[in-house]
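Re: How this chain folds, sequence and tokenised backbone to follow
How to read it: Take the token row as a discrete description of the fold.
Start of record: The labelled sequence and token lines come straight after this line.
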Amino acid sequence: MKRTILTTVALLAATGSIALREAMTPLPAMAENLQHTQQLLSTRQCPQCNLTGAGLILANLEGANLSGADLSRANLSRANLTGADLSGANLTGASLNGANLAGANLSGANLNGTDLRDAYLVNTQLFGVNLNTAYVRGAIGIPEYAGTPEDFYAWGAVESQRGNYRAAIDFYNQALSLKPDYAPAFLGRALARFRLGDENGAIQDAERSSVLFTAQGNTRGYQASNTLIQGIEFEKNPPKVESRPSLGNAIVGIGSLLFQLLSPF
């Protein structure tokens, strides 16, 4: 039985604390504008509308015009927004968890704190947006122009941590498409490939990362790459002895190294 490589990528998530107001201090109004919500659901035309906090779970908003709308804190989880126009919309704190945004236009939208986990973003326009403060775990189809090599590497590390190795490889591929000499992405992809049983592909990636880390003067990256190569080779051709060293114990530090490689950004 193939031994499991233990890879733990611990990504820090920034959490803000919300101070409690004094008992006599009134809270700001957050009531949903029902007239605008009804207009949207009946006509799918609601540009510049006030939809703050609107409850639109599973709503069918295919092709809807929501350009410039205020959808802050709105709940659009699993909504159908195929081809919708959300350009310039305020989606601060909104939930688009699992939403279908295929072909939608989110260019210039405010995605600060937006929940895009497991959203379908194939052919979605994301020009001029910042995904660094959005939650994109499990999102499918993020275009290359919407992130940096480091972004895609980080998203790949998250998917690898979740056990979604194919999704992780897709993100590593995007990182490498943008930055072909990005050694950490080769190392991360090597681990993901090994998890999927692609030992030859894993060795090729690890060898490439070893060469790049050497050229970049990164000793720890070079050592981690070689440790992975040796471990995989050992698994492929184990010696005929009863006592065998643990592959997991030999390379357990690679996961923490991958996290450290995220620190520059």
User: Anything to note?
Assistant: Confidence is low (pLDDT under 50) at residues 1-29. The CA atoms of residues 13 and 135 lie 10 Å apart. Residues 219-236 form the longest helix (18 residues). Residues 34-147 form a domain with the Pectate Lyase C-like fold (CATH 2.160.20.80).
